Amino acid sequence: MNLAKEDYPVSVQFDFxxxxxxxYQKRVERKLSDLSMMFQAKGIVDxxxxxxxPVIYEIFYYGYQTSISDMAxxxxxxxxxxxxxxxxxxxxxxxxxxxxxxxxxxVKGEGYLLQETIKGEFQVEKWTKGTISHIPPMWAHRVxxxxxxxxxxxxxYHLAAGHDYKPVVKRGFSKRVVAENGKAAFIMNKQRE
Length: 193
Ligand code: S6P
Ligand code: ZN
Fold this sequence. Notes:
Elements: E1 13-15, E2 20-22, E3 26-31, H1 32-35, H2 42-51, E4 55-65, E5 70-78, E6 82-83, E7 86-87, E8 102-108, E9 111-116, E10 122-127, E11 132-135, E12 140-145, E13 151-157, H3 166-171, E14 175-180, E15 183-188
Antiparallel strand pairs: 1-2, 3-4, 4-5, 5-13, 6-7, 8-11, 8-13, 9-10, 9-12, 14-15
The structure holds D-sorbitol-6-phosphate and zinc ion.
Residues 30, 59, 74, 76, 90-93, 102, 155, 157, 161, 163 line the site of D-sorbitol-6-phosphate.
C-alpha cells in the first residue's frame, strides 16, 4: 500500500503545567450558556448569565484519520467552581456508536467520573492525578471537578464513536455532585423523581 500524507506518524507535546498540548487542530469552549440545562439551579444560571458567560471547560482536540484508521485525542480542562452548590462538570454523553469504548487519564486535579447506562445502572470513579479509567461501550460519561484548581484529563477514542447528548440533556445522571461543608457529596437528581 502506498502511504498517503495522513498515514505518517504524528506527535504532539503535552504541557503538564497548563494542561494542554500543542499543536492541536481545534479548541472548543463550553461556556455556562452551553451548559445551562445541565445544572440544577436554573435560577442561579439565569442570574449569572445576565452578567457574564464564563468558560466552564475547554477541549483541545486532534483527530488522526488515516487511510485505514480513525483515532482521536482530546484533552479536557475543567475550571474549578460551582453553580449554587453543584460543581462544574462536563455535559456528558453516550457514544452514538454503541460498540465504542474510551480511555480517560486524569493528569491534573481531583474529581469524579460518573458513568451510567440507559437502564440507570450508575457507577462513580474517584479521580486524582494519575487515575486511568476505561469507559466501556454503552455507558454515558461525565467528569466533575471537585478540586480548587483545574481538572485536566486526556481522552483516547475512535472518531467513529460520535456523541449522543440527548438522553443526558433530557434526564441528566442519576446523581449530582454538590459541595456540602466544603466537601463533595452525592445527591439524587430531581429530574429522575
Ligand atoms: C469524547 C470524549 C471527550 C469529551 C469531552 C467533553 O468521546 O468523551 O473528549 O467530548 O471531555 O465532554 P462533553 O460531554 O461535552 O463532550
Ligand atoms: Zn466519550
